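tl;dr need the bound structure. longer version: we got a ligand (magnesium ion) that a collaborator sent over and nobodys looked at where it sits. i said id run it. heres the input, straight from their email, havent touched it
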Amino acid sequence: MELVRVDVPFRFEIGTAAGVHHTRSLLFVRVVAAESEGWGECAALGEGTAVDPPMVDVEEAAVTRGVRRLIDASAARGGELPAELEMAQLFGSAPVDRMLAAMFEMAVADAELRLAGRSLATALEVGPGYGTLPVGAAVGIPPGHDLAILREQVAVAVAGGAARLRMKIAPGWDREPVGAVRADHPDLVLQVDANGAYRMEDADRLGELAAFDVLCVEQPLPPADLMAHTELARRMPLPICLDESLSSPRRVLDALRNESCAMACLKPARLGGLRATRVAHAACAAAGVPVFVGGFFEAGLGRASNLALAARLAQDAAGLVGDLSDPASYLEWDPCGYPPVREGWVSVPEGPGVGAWPDVPVLGGPDAPRRWFPTTYT
Ligand SMILES: [Mg+2]
């Protein structure tokens, strides 16, 4: 096994109510077996969030126990890699473990799929009509709360065909910018994401955003308080979509049981990977809660995995437009590459594996530490 890390600058600062991201620290795991090889991408951001560990924590856990667990599991199978289906159970339920599980599951799935000559979409049984998906865009809070920068970024996203726009809001940055975007784009599907920055006392203020025909308010209150979202949902004329609150498969069930949200953003890396996300999605579908697949500004490999998964989830139940934009739209360069997004639509990759592998010569540069964890079985 090999762990490879590379830092890629964002094209522009990504501002949220929770902080500003300047650089995307990418971490990849490469699993080399006798007959096959696969890559997985860690979704954790350099800075982490209230509920998501920073990349360095996942990297440390990968070194101290993730690699060991996969080696032990392979040894127990006579040197064979575990099946992708078995991967999630090798890891625990802490946030770091779920991120690890998602990354290692992706690598093992990739190796398995390449050996079989199948795409992830084929393995997920994505059927006709779901091979092409609409792509949404997200815009952050611009530096200095500059309305002109926001309007320009939205204009670029809309010109690129974005089927939906998710814009970040925070106290002091809500009615005016949302009103400006709505005035510029009367027909745009628009949702706002507060990243937990508001309080119950802000219910009326948030409710005023209904005047701008906003689809939903994402994560208005801090992640821990599901019951407060349940109460806010009763007070506010806009649907609530939860994101950070859905920090584990169990929390998804809690949110559904308490009617804390009318919509849900499911992030596969946060939930523990492909299998865990499908289980959470089935619960949402049964409760009539539409879902979109959210991301962490991944490179092309992680995004390709989310893309195939989103196709399968859309087939299982009608959902919302997901975060499936081209990484090149937010990263200075994408070491993996991604299918072209044309007029707001992207095609699910059909080649063997999860997606395009990272460009190894690029990753081998001086800024990209690579660590080998060799193993032999006797
Ligand atoms: Mg969000």
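gonna send this back to them w/ a short note. The two ends are 17 Å apart (CA to CA).
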